[in-house]
Amino acid sequence: MLVYLPSPDRGVWYLGPVPLRAYALCIIAGIVVAVLWGEKRFVARGGEPGTVVDVAVFAVPFGLVGGRLYHVATDWETYFGPGGNPVDALKIWQGGLGIWGAIALGGVGAWIACRRRGVPLPFFADAVAPGIVVAQAIGRLGNYFNQELFGGPTTLPWGLEIYDRVDPVTGLPDALGGVALDATPIAIVHPTFLYELLWNLVVAVVIVWADRRFRLGHGRVFALYVAGYTLGRFFIELMRTDPATRVFGDIRINVVVSAVVFVVAVAYVLLVRKPREELARPDAERAAVADAGNDAGDDGSPGDEAVSGTARDRAP
Length: 316
Fold this sequence. Notes:
Blueprint (H helix, E strand, L loop, with lengths): L11 E4 L2 E4 H23 L6 H24 L1 H5 L18 H19 L3 H26 L13 E3 L24 E3 L2 H23 L5 H20 L6 E2 L3 E2 H19 L10 H12 L10 H4 L3 H4 L2
Antiparallel strand pairs: 1-2, 3-4, 5-6
């Protein structure tokens, strides 16, 4: 008899009256990893320490709102159709964040913060790109605890067992907040969330390698991340069986979005040929200007060496 991957018996634990939701904890853990790794890469490229945290204060709330808006917009019937409850659209803790909306609106928040700090958005995006895709991988663990985003039936040894979950008090079905009282699976399915998790980690390794090998800059690291992610998401999305908005007959909307975004990202990587920009920290800038003062002309203007690596490279 084959032994398959078991699902957790629940996705919510209670600390007194306070619910601890695995989905939310995974999202938070992913954000922490993205910020810490992004900060390290940002400083290594010449950025000022603390900038990534400051930008995250804007980008993360924007991203969460954008992710939820995309999810609700592409699953409108669930919340506003017959039998739907519009209030549920606000219950982000029950799952449902669209990466496209999170990146789009999160990018707006990052742009606002980057302008306040005088940092080009492409420079910032390149620094945080690997952390973002690893954060997505960590977030997929939340789908595992929620028993969601899986594929069709399978007999493969890594098939995922799905259990019935019920409210232990009332006995009524409760897929997200309930508990599996019976360990007998009702289905064995493809763990597509796991496929995406592993793919995201591969993408992270590839873009870090490419960044070091080719010294990518001006947003090309971020574009490579987008291209890699959408390539995997295209095929993984075709395997999923959960309800989704269909377009062009019977194609899942995220399949179409993945294809379009992939083409745009690849075009950006191929067309942008600028060398990597390097930001000089304020103290380094002052030292460079002071040193260049000895070589300045009679008008007191700094020489070319004082400009190189500062204002010229800051142009987006």
